[in-house]
Design goal:
With 297 residues, this protein is of the alpha+beta class. It is built from ten helices and ten strands. The strands form three sheets. It has a five-stranded antiparallel β-sheet with strand order 1-8-3-6-10, covered by helices on one side. A hairpin with a 2-residue loop joins strand 4 and strand 5. Helix 2 packs antiparallel against helix 3 and helix 7 runs parallel beside helix 10. The protein starts with 12 loop residues before the first strand and ends with a helix. This is Helix-turn-helix domain-containing protein.
Length: 297
């Protein structure tokens, strides 16, 4: 079993840090990082796509992206995004400012990839965190980016110490903001057990002993999703696993998951995963045949 690394053992250093005004250029899309990245949205609105999800961006949003994760930034043309960006090594410093690549087959250089270790605190940070209520964290982050541009004595020691302290504060904030609530967890467990049901919201409110506004607010705070979005994600993940692991028909799977028609199910599945369920089934069959041929040899 892989041993987890504690967040306190990291030794962060900065490869590159700057203020960036997004313009929709090619280098803001379909990109991968050689190292860990923080993006603090200073102004504007938009989205970032990664991990099969689209995260909303607005002033005060902090994005954390681990190395090797494909991501794309989209901006609102009427309110373009500007951000303070920081690209970091957490375990072993690499003497390079290179921090992005765009095609794993063509321009990826293995020697530039940062060292990574399994760390649950870092995994929980992946995605977005709202810092609007924490101006001191915002100011420290901006200060680190600006100080990294200066030519001063002991710059690396000062900047790296500030960054280490800031990351621990961020993790502490993230942990305290996302303590699981047993009432909400109970509802998520029911969604997992019965993904084909029509959501009985009134029953759930009674079970939780919460008003509708409280329930939605607590659910969103704990999961980052509305109950409807969470239930939909569970359905999609169950559909993917069932198509991949069984020979059941697409129609049967759609019915079990409560979709009104296989056509509607296919549309939703395609939007979510980027390919129709029939194509996933074909790929699964091809992979299965390929593995059997290998086994025979």
């Amino acid at each position: 079993m892989t041993e987890l690394t504690s967040i306190v053992s990291i030794q962060p250093s900065i490869r590159a840090a700057h203020y960036h005004a997004y313009s929709g250029r090619v280098k803001e899309k379909n990109r991968f990082g050689y190292c860990f990245a923080f993006h603090f949205i200073y102004k504007g609105t938009g989205t970032v796509q990664m991990n099969g999800r689209s995260y909303p961006l607005k002033k005060g949003t902090l994005v954390f992206i681990p190395p090797g994760l494909k991501h794309t930034f989209h901006m609102n043309e009427s309110q373009p995004i500007s951000s303070y960006d920081m690209y970091c090594d957490f375990f072993t410093k690499k003497n390079t400012i290179q921090h992005l690549y765009f095609d794993p087959q063509l321009d990826f250089e293995p020697g530039l990839l940062t060292e990574s270790k399994p760390c649950s605190e870092l995994e929980q940070l992946t995605g977005i965190t709202q810092l609007s209520r924490y101006p001191e964290l915002i100011q420290t982050f901006i200060q680190i980016v600006r100080m990294n541009r200066l030519d001063i004595q002991y710059k690396a020691e000062i900047v790296n110490s500030l960054l280490y302290s800031w990351i621990l504060q961020l993790v502490n904030l993230n942990l305290s903001d996302n303590i699981p609530d047993y009432r909400i967890q109970k509802i998520i467990d029911l969604m997992e057990q019965y993904p084909g049901m029509n959501p009985p919201y009134e029953q759930w409110l009674d079970m939780c002993q919460l008003k509708k506004s409280q329930f939605y607010s607590m659910f969103k705070k704990m999961t980052g999703l509305t109950p409807k979005e969470c239930f939909f994600r569970i359905k999609m993940q169950r559909a993917y696993a069932t198509i991949h692991e069984s020979k059941r028909s697409i129609t049967s799977i759609a019915e079990d998951l409560g979709f009104s028609s296989v056509h509607y199910f296919s549309l939703q599945f395609s939007k979510y995963f980027g390919l129709p369920p029939s194509e996933l089934r074909k790929q699964t069959k091809v992979a299965s045949v390929s593995y059997s041929i290998k086994d025979e040899h």
